Amino acid sequence: MEIERKFLVDLSDLPFDPKDYPARKIEQAYLCTAPVVRIRRDNDDFFLTYKSKGMMVREEYNLPLTKESYYHLLLKADGRIITKTRYVIPIENGLFVELDIFEGDLAPLVLAEIEFPDEAFAKAYQAPSWLKEDVTYSSEYHNSTLSKKD
C-alpha cells in the first residue's frame, strides 16, 4: 500500500540546496496507464511496477527486472519516456520528501512526494510553506498522465 501526498515546488523558494542531499537518476515509461504498468530504471536498478486506481492511497507492487528486460520493454512503451533527478530530503517526524526535478520537455516541472505510514497521518499533515500547491488529488500530476501529455 502506498500512501502519499504530492506538491508542486518552486526551486527558488527552497530553504536548502537539493544538491546537498542524495540523488538518483530515474527514467521511466508506461506500458499501460489503466491500470498503471510502469517500467523504471533507478540508477542501476530496474523495476516493473503495477499501481491500482486511487489518488492518495493505492496498491503498488514492484518487481525486479534485468537490464535486458527493461530495455526490451522500453521499446513497447506508450507515450514519452520520463527522466528526472530525485533528491531524498529528510523532514520532521521521520518523513522524507522525494523531490523530483523533471528533465527534457517536462522541465521545469518540480514535484515533491511524501509517503506516510497511514492515511490519518497523511490527512493531518501540515506541509511546510516551501511545498506549494497540494496536487495529491489531481491526476494531471500523476507520472502516468505526464507520460501522455503533449
TrEMBL record:
<dbReference type="InterPro" id="IPR023577">
    <property type="entry name" value="CYTH_domain"/>
</dbReference>
<protein>
    <submittedName>
        <fullName>Adenylate cyclase</fullName>
    </submittedName>
</protein>
<dbReference type="Pfam" id="PF01928">
    <property type="entry name" value="CYTH"/>
</dbReference>
<feature type="domain" description="CYTH">
    <location>
        <begin position="1"/>
        <end position="148"/>
    </location>
</feature>
<dbReference type="InterPro" id="IPR033469">
    <property type="entry name" value="CYTH-like_dom_sf"/>
</dbReference>
<dbReference type="InterPro" id="IPR012042">
    <property type="entry name" value="NeuTTM/CthTTM-like"/>
</dbReference>
<feature type="active site" description="Proton acceptor">
    <location>
        <position position="30"/>
    </location>
</feature>
